[in-house]
Write a structure and sequence with these properties.
The protein is an alpha/beta fold and about 260 residues long. It has a single domain, classed as Spore Coat Polysaccharide Biosynthesis Protein SpsA, Chain A, CATH 3.90.550. The chain is built from nine helices and nine strands. Strand 7 and strand 8 form a beta hairpin. Helix 3 crosses helix 5 and helix 7 packs across helix 8.
């Protein structure tokens, strides 16, 4: 079984323009994440998956400069892009990580890879972690099936397309360790307030001589809980946006099923 990690990134953000290139530890976010994801246990490596949109050429340049490969596919249909990337690499499973989750837990991504080998699900995710700390495990066979006989569509939000269909075996791995179980913490990057929090974290870890690994980030926040107030208020707007994206994906005009 061949398993690879995909960093799913575009250079089209509206709420935080240019976020894929914002500096993290002296390098663009995309490069920072590629380096972190290159060490996921049980995987063959990491691939930048972006689109054919000319705006995304800069992201490919970042990957190339650091020695990583990139794949360019559908501008709007993430599922087609992931399927085609997996085909190109010859991977049976993908661990998909969003390009705006700089503090994703490499530890838990490795657990997803191990789970793929033992259980062979169609889709799996670790629940109970902070928002922005996990990725999705998805089988190429499931991607082939869900993309078959379906018009190209905007699948900005896509996990529910598998979960609502009983034909797919979708499994949640639940994290209960109190060090990591903080689903109310927001670590993703979507608003200026998120970046403000991230900069506080990065500067705090640097002052301690620590890297920005998930474990160090969580320990730092546990010692500095007040920092979580910086971006707490944007969560409602974020969830409303997700709801709109899910509704769009399910509408007949977008190629979704009723």
């Amino acid at each position: 079984m061949r398993i690879g990690t995909i960093l799913s990134a575009r250079n089209k953000a509206n709420r935080l323009p240019g976020k894929a290139l914002l500096p993290y530890a002296g390098q663009p976010l995309t490069g920072f994440m590629l380096r972190r994801l290159s060490s996921v246990p049980g995987t063959e490596g990491v691939l930048l998956a972006t689109s054919t949109d000319p705006r995304d050429t800069t992201l490919c340049d970042v990957a190339t400069e650091l020695g990583f490969q990139s794949f360019r596919g559908s501008p709007d249909d993430k599922l087609l892009r992931y399927r085609d990337a997996a085909r190109a690499q010859g991977w049976d499973y993908l661990i998909v990580v969003d390009g705006d989750d700089p503090f994703v837990s490499v530890r838990h991504l490795g657990e997803l890879a191990a789970f793929a080998r033992s259980e062979c699900p169609d889709l799996a995710v670790v629940e109970g972690l902070p928002l922005g700390a996990t990725g999705f495990l998805v089988a190429l066979t499931a991607l082939e099936a869900i993309c078959r006989d379906r018009p190209e569509a905007d699948t900005e939000v896509w996990g529910h397309l598998f979960r609502r269909d009983p034909a797919y075996r979708c499994i949640d791995l639940n994290e209960s360790d109190p060090r990591w179980h903080h689903p109310d913490w927001r670590l993703t990057l979507d608003y200026p307030e998120d970046y403000q929090l991230h900069q506080k974290i990065m500067h705090g870890l640097e002052a301690r001589g620590l890297s920005a690994d998930f474990e160090n980030v969580m320990a730092f926040l546990a010692d500095n809980m007040a920092l979580l107030d910086i971006n707490r208020h944007v969560q409602a707007a974020y969830e409303a946006g997700l709801a709109r994206a899910r509704a769009a994906a399910l509408s007949p005009a977008a190629g979704g099923q009723s």
